[in-house]
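Lab notebook, bench 4. The sequencing result for the construct came back, and we need a structural model before the next group meeting so we can plan mutations. Quick request posted to the team channel:

Model the 3D structure of this chain.
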Amino acid sequence: MVNLIDIEDPADARLAEYQSVHEGRRRKEADRDWFLCEGVLLVERLLDSDLPVRSLLITPGKLDRLRPLLRGDDLDVFVAPQDVLNATVGFNMHRGAIASAGRREAVPVKDLLAASQTVAVLEGINDHENLGAIFRSALALGIDAVLLDQTSGDPYYRRTVRVSMGAAFTLPFARLGGAENLFELLDGAGYVSIALTPDPGATSVSRVKLAPGTSAALLLGAEGDGLRPETLRAATMRVRIPIRPGVDSLNVGHAAAVAFHRFGSVDNQSVV
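Done. Here's the predicted structure in C-alpha coordinate form:
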Protein backbone atom coordinates (compact mmCIF):
# COMPACT_ATOMS: atom_id res chain seq x y z
CA MET A 1 0.00 0.00 0.00
CA VAL A 2 1.31 3.45 -0.96
CA ASN A 3 0.58 6.26 1.49
CA LEU A 4 0.42 9.70 -0.16
CA ILE A 5 1.05 12.29 2.54
CA ASP A 6 0.82 16.03 1.94
CA ILE A 7 3.53 18.01 3.71
CA GLU A 8 3.35 21.70 4.54
CA ASP A 9 5.93 22.02 7.33
CA PRO A 10 9.64 21.36 6.58
CA ALA A 11 10.13 20.67 10.30
CA ASP A 12 7.66 17.76 10.19
CA ALA A 13 9.19 14.98 12.32
CA ARG A 14 8.34 12.39 9.69
CA LEU A 15 10.91 14.00 7.40
CA ALA A 16 13.85 13.52 9.77
CA GLU A 17 15.95 11.61 7.23
CA TYR A 18 15.60 14.42 4.70
CA GLN A 19 16.13 17.44 6.91
CA SER A 20 19.35 19.45 6.39
CA VAL A 21 20.79 16.92 3.96
CA HIS A 22 24.02 18.87 3.48
CA GLU A 23 24.77 18.52 7.17
CA GLY A 24 24.90 14.77 6.60
CA ARG A 25 28.34 15.26 5.09
CA ARG A 26 29.63 15.66 8.61
CA ARG A 27 28.23 12.28 9.55
CA LYS A 28 29.53 8.92 8.43
CA GLU A 29 26.92 7.96 5.88
CA ALA A 30 28.54 4.55 5.45
CA ASP A 31 27.65 3.73 9.07
CA ARG A 32 23.92 4.02 8.34
CA ASP A 33 21.83 1.14 7.05
CA TRP A 34 20.08 3.53 4.65
CA PHE A 35 21.08 6.11 2.06
CA LEU A 36 19.57 9.02 0.13
CA CYS A 37 19.05 9.20 -3.60
CA GLU A 38 18.11 12.50 -5.27
CA GLY A 39 16.71 13.39 -8.68
CA VAL A 40 13.68 11.98 -10.43
CA LEU A 41 15.70 9.82 -12.86
CA LEU A 42 17.66 8.20 -10.05
CA VAL A 43 14.52 7.74 -7.98
CA GLU A 44 12.96 5.98 -10.98
CA ARG A 45 15.96 3.66 -11.19
CA LEU A 46 15.79 3.05 -7.47
CA LEU A 47 12.10 2.15 -7.64
CA ASP A 48 12.87 -0.20 -10.53
CA SER A 49 15.61 -1.99 -8.54
CA ASP A 50 15.27 -4.62 -5.84
CA LEU A 51 16.53 -2.33 -3.09
CA PRO A 52 14.07 -1.67 -0.24
CA VAL A 53 12.65 1.84 -0.61
CA ARG A 54 11.86 3.40 2.76
CA SER A 55 10.11 6.60 1.66
CA LEU A 56 10.04 9.38 -0.92
CA LEU A 57 9.85 13.16 -0.68
CA ILE A 58 8.66 14.67 -3.97
CA THR A 59 6.95 17.71 -5.44
CA PRO A 60 3.43 17.42 -6.89
CA GLY A 61 4.85 17.87 -10.38
CA LYS A 62 6.92 14.66 -10.04
CA LEU A 63 4.09 12.56 -8.60
CA ASP A 64 2.44 11.80 -11.93
CA ARG A 65 5.75 10.70 -13.46
CA LEU A 66 6.63 8.42 -10.55
CA ARG A 67 3.15 7.10 -9.78
CA PRO A 68 3.38 4.05 -12.14
CA LEU A 69 6.47 2.86 -10.25
CA LEU A 70 5.10 3.36 -6.74
CA ARG A 71 4.49 0.03 -5.08
CA GLY A 72 5.38 -1.89 -1.96
CA ASP A 73 4.02 -2.47 1.49
CA ASP A 74 3.26 0.67 3.46
CA LEU A 75 5.45 2.99 1.38
CA ASP A 76 5.24 6.62 2.54
CA VAL A 77 5.35 9.16 -0.28
CA PHE A 78 5.61 12.67 1.12
CA VAL A 79 4.35 15.29 -1.34
CA ALA A 80 5.49 18.85 -0.72
CA PRO A 81 5.60 22.12 -2.68
CA GLN A 82 9.02 23.05 -4.06
CA ASP A 83 9.67 25.70 -1.40
CA VAL A 84 8.85 23.25 1.41
CA LEU A 85 11.10 20.59 -0.14
CA ASN A 86 13.94 23.12 -0.43
CA ALA A 87 13.51 24.21 3.19
CA THR A 88 13.52 20.58 4.31
CA VAL A 89 16.71 19.47 2.60
CA GLY A 90 18.48 22.79 3.13
CA PHE A 91 19.21 23.79 -0.47
CA ASN A 92 17.43 24.47 -3.75
CA MET A 93 16.81 20.94 -4.96
CA HIS A 94 15.36 21.66 -8.39
CA ARG A 95 15.32 17.95 -9.23
CA GLY A 96 12.11 17.70 -7.23
CA ALA A 97 12.54 14.22 -5.80
CA ILE A 98 14.58 12.51 -3.11
CA ALA A 99 14.23 9.03 -1.66
CA SER A 100 15.47 7.02 1.29
CA ALA A 101 16.40 3.39 0.66
CA GLY A 102 17.94 0.50 2.55
CA ARG A 103 21.35 -0.83 1.64
CA ARG A 104 21.73 -4.26 0.11
CA GLU A 105 23.00 -6.89 2.52
CA ALA A 106 26.78 -7.28 2.33
CA VAL A 107 28.04 -9.99 -0.03
CA PRO A 108 31.01 -12.16 1.07
CA VAL A 109 33.99 -11.58 -1.22
CA LYS A 110 34.30 -15.29 -2.01
CA ASP A 111 30.68 -15.39 -3.17
CA LEU A 112 31.15 -12.30 -5.33
CA LEU A 113 34.23 -13.79 -7.02
CA ALA A 114 32.55 -17.16 -7.55
CA ALA A 115 29.57 -15.52 -9.27
CA SER A 116 31.66 -13.27 -11.55
CA GLN A 117 34.16 -13.52 -14.38
CA THR A 118 35.53 -10.00 -14.64
CA VAL A 119 35.74 -7.77 -11.56
CA ALA A 120 37.13 -4.34 -10.80
CA VAL A 121 39.23 -4.15 -7.62
CA LEU A 122 39.50 -0.66 -6.13
CA GLU A 123 42.32 0.37 -3.80
CA GLY A 124 42.07 3.72 -2.04
CA ILE A 125 39.41 5.14 -4.37
CA ASN A 126 37.84 7.61 -1.95
CA ASP A 127 36.99 10.51 -4.26
CA HIS A 128 33.20 10.39 -4.63
CA GLU A 129 33.16 11.49 -8.28
CA ASN A 130 35.87 9.05 -9.34
CA LEU A 131 34.11 6.23 -7.51
CA GLY A 132 30.81 7.09 -9.17
CA ALA A 133 32.43 7.29 -12.62
CA ILE A 134 34.05 3.87 -12.12
CA PHE A 135 30.76 2.26 -11.12
CA ARG A 136 28.96 3.82 -14.09
CA SER A 137 31.59 2.58 -16.56
CA ALA A 138 31.74 -0.85 -14.93
CA LEU A 139 28.02 -1.38 -15.36
CA ALA A 140 28.00 -0.03 -18.91
CA LEU A 141 31.04 -1.95 -20.17
CA GLY A 142 30.39 -5.43 -18.87
CA ILE A 143 32.23 -5.67 -15.55
CA ASP A 144 30.40 -8.21 -13.40
CA ALA A 145 31.16 -6.80 -9.96
CA VAL A 146 33.30 -4.38 -7.95
CA LEU A 147 35.51 -5.24 -4.99
CA LEU A 148 36.53 -2.36 -2.71
CA ASP A 149 39.30 -2.29 -0.15
CA GLN A 150 38.84 -0.82 3.33
CA THR A 151 40.09 2.62 2.27
CA SER A 152 37.79 3.10 -0.73
CA GLY A 153 34.67 5.22 -0.52
CA ASP A 154 31.00 4.39 -0.09
CA PRO A 155 29.16 3.48 -3.33
CA TYR A 156 25.90 4.64 -1.69
CA TYR A 157 27.16 8.12 -0.83
CA ARG A 158 24.77 10.69 -2.36
CA ARG A 159 27.29 12.27 -4.72
CA THR A 160 28.65 8.88 -5.77
CA VAL A 161 25.15 7.63 -6.51
CA ARG A 162 24.46 10.74 -8.57
CA VAL A 163 27.67 10.47 -10.64
CA SER A 164 27.21 6.72 -11.15
CA MET A 165 23.60 7.24 -12.29
CA GLY A 166 22.54 4.63 -9.76
CA ALA A 167 24.90 1.87 -10.97
CA ALA A 168 25.30 0.58 -7.40
CA PHE A 169 21.57 -0.20 -7.34
CA THR A 170 22.19 -3.17 -9.65
CA LEU A 171 25.95 -3.82 -9.94
CA PRO A 172 27.10 -6.30 -7.27
CA PHE A 173 29.92 -5.13 -5.00
CA ALA A 174 31.66 -6.23 -1.83
CA ARG A 175 34.22 -4.80 0.56
CA LEU A 176 37.39 -6.65 1.44
CA GLY A 177 37.62 -7.38 5.15
CA GLY A 178 40.61 -6.14 7.09
CA ALA A 179 41.90 -9.66 7.71
CA GLU A 180 41.30 -10.92 4.15
CA ASN A 181 44.19 -11.24 1.71
CA LEU A 182 43.20 -10.01 -1.73
CA PHE A 183 45.58 -12.16 -3.75
CA GLU A 184 44.86 -15.32 -1.79
CA LEU A 185 41.19 -14.81 -2.60
CA LEU A 186 41.86 -14.05 -6.27
CA ASP A 187 44.24 -16.98 -6.69
CA GLY A 188 41.87 -19.31 -4.89
CA ALA A 189 39.06 -18.31 -7.25
CA GLY A 190 41.24 -18.73 -10.35
CA TYR A 191 41.57 -15.06 -11.28
CA VAL A 192 44.30 -13.39 -13.30
CA SER A 193 45.11 -10.05 -11.64
CA ILE A 194 45.78 -7.09 -13.95
CA ALA A 195 47.25 -4.02 -12.26
CA LEU A 196 46.70 -0.71 -14.08
CA THR A 197 49.71 1.59 -13.86
CA PRO A 198 51.21 4.50 -15.87
CA ASP A 199 54.65 2.87 -15.58
CA PRO A 200 56.17 2.93 -19.11
CA GLY A 201 57.69 -0.47 -18.40
CA ALA A 202 54.28 -2.10 -18.09
CA THR A 203 52.65 -3.98 -20.97
CA SER A 204 50.40 -1.93 -23.25
CA VAL A 205 46.74 -2.76 -22.74
CA SER A 206 46.38 -3.35 -26.49
CA ARG A 207 48.94 -6.18 -26.34
CA VAL A 208 47.23 -8.18 -23.62
CA LYS A 209 45.24 -11.20 -24.76
CA LEU A 210 43.16 -13.30 -22.42
CA ALA A 211 41.82 -16.67 -23.45
CA PRO A 212 38.04 -16.90 -23.61
CA GLY A 213 36.61 -17.77 -20.23
CA THR A 214 39.53 -16.29 -18.27
CA SER A 215 38.53 -14.78 -14.94
CA ALA A 216 40.18 -11.37 -14.62
CA ALA A 217 40.50 -8.85 -11.80
CA LEU A 218 41.33 -5.29 -12.90
CA LEU A 219 43.18 -3.45 -10.13
CA LEU A 220 42.82 0.33 -9.92
CA GLY A 221 44.53 2.66 -7.46
CA ALA A 222 43.79 6.10 -6.10
CA GLU A 223 44.29 9.29 -8.07
CA GLY A 224 47.89 10.44 -7.69
CA ASP A 225 49.37 7.61 -5.65
CA GLY A 226 48.08 4.75 -7.78
CA LEU A 227 48.33 1.17 -6.58
CA ARG A 228 50.61 0.37 -3.67
CA PRO A 229 54.04 -1.09 -4.58
CA GLU A 230 53.17 -4.38 -2.88
CA THR A 231 49.98 -4.64 -4.94
CA LEU A 232 51.90 -4.04 -8.16
CA ARG A 233 54.44 -6.71 -7.20
CA ALA A 234 51.80 -9.29 -6.36
CA ALA A 235 49.68 -8.84 -9.50
CA THR A 236 49.87 -11.37 -12.32
CA MET A 237 50.67 -8.59 -14.79
CA ARG A 238 51.11 -4.83 -14.90
CA VAL A 239 49.32 -3.04 -17.73
CA ARG A 240 49.45 0.55 -18.95
CA ILE A 241 47.30 2.66 -21.26
CA PRO A 242 49.59 4.38 -23.81
CA ILE A 243 49.26 8.17 -23.80
CA ARG A 244 51.07 11.07 -25.41
CA PRO A 245 54.54 12.02 -24.15
CA GLY A 246 54.48 14.79 -21.60
CA VAL A 247 51.18 13.69 -20.06
CA ASP A 248 51.76 11.89 -16.78
CA SER A 249 48.57 9.85 -16.51
CA LEU A 250 44.83 9.61 -17.06
CA ASN A 251 42.22 10.32 -14.43
CA VAL A 252 41.48 7.01 -12.72
CA GLY A 253 37.84 7.14 -13.84
CA HIS A 254 38.91 7.53 -17.48
CA ALA A 255 41.58 4.85 -17.18
CA ALA A 256 39.00 2.50 -15.70
CA ALA A 257 36.65 3.04 -18.66
CA VAL A 258 39.43 2.18 -21.15
CA ALA A 259 40.34 -0.98 -19.24
CA PHE A 260 36.71 -2.00 -18.82
CA HIS A 261 36.08 -1.61 -22.54
CA ARG A 262 39.14 -3.78 -23.25
CA PHE A 263 38.39 -6.57 -20.79
CA GLY A 264 34.67 -6.33 -20.02
CA SER A 265 32.11 -8.69 -21.54
CA VAL A 266 30.83 -6.03 -23.96
CA ASP A 267 34.08 -6.42 -25.92
CA ASN A 268 35.79 -9.62 -27.07
CA GLN A 269 38.72 -10.37 -24.79
CA SER A 270 40.54 -12.46 -27.41
CA VAL A 271 40.62 -9.73 -30.09
CA VAL A 272 43.22 -6.96 -30.05
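The chain has nine helices and twelve strands.
Will bring this to the meeting.
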